[in-house]
User: Fold this.
Amino acid sequence: MKIFILSVSERIYSTKRLYDEAIKRGHNARIINHTKCSVKLGEGKPQIFYDGKNIIDDTSVIIPRIGASVSRHGAAVVKEFEMNGVFSTARSLGILRAQNKVRTLQIMNRKHVPIPKTVFSINPENIEEQIEMLGGAPVIIKLQEGTQGLGVILADSKKSAKSIIDTFYNMHTSILLQEFIKESNGEDIRAFVVGGKIISAMKRIGVKGDFRSNIHRGGSGEPVVLTKKEKSMAIRAANYLSLPVCGVDMIRSSKGPLLIEVNSTPGLQGIEAYTKINIAEAIIKFLEKNV
Assistant:
């Protein structure tokens, strides 16, 4: 099987793991920097050029590893592969939806997947009203397209919340506001979904004094056993976003589990280390079964 791993660098841990597992299982794998791909349309069949060569007919499957900073171009490249019958571990529409937190939450809310109380607006004149919609301070303020815990702020008081929100609005930055779930205690859960099944799950624990639990922000992890409801939520979220391979992030609250985010390009390093499960191999096996 010919596999293209779309990634900006072969030195990224997750990219290298997927490549190594594909080679180990006898496949013809290649790492393609999607930011250096050019799509040509018109005058016959579409073409995707990389290193001066049309590669669109040279593969049977792609594994997109599309970062938020180049999501539009990356998703367009993925879309062109899709339209030419190439199987993908993440649909282009799913990539774009997952990288916009508001769009993800809108879909989850419509499908009755529990989420924290959330407000998004661009109106700087009723900031106090927006905060009250969430039950008052403290509130979480998030950039709509932030990743790895970046652009996530806890505003302890109404005064600080108003100041931060007003600043973002005046900078024309898209944000969302969420209720602060105190009982989550700086912890969340990452469920790794592959082909409609939970392959692995870990609890992420933030460093002392930081409400964020991201491993990239210095947090740690440990294996966790998901409840039946958490498993169902993760699998449903992956299906609703058309992401056969994804990471689904949830928190445990007094109201039960709440979905906070879906990651179309989940990292492997932390979760493989903490759970000792070979997720890269599971992804390659999923491709073998479906392609």
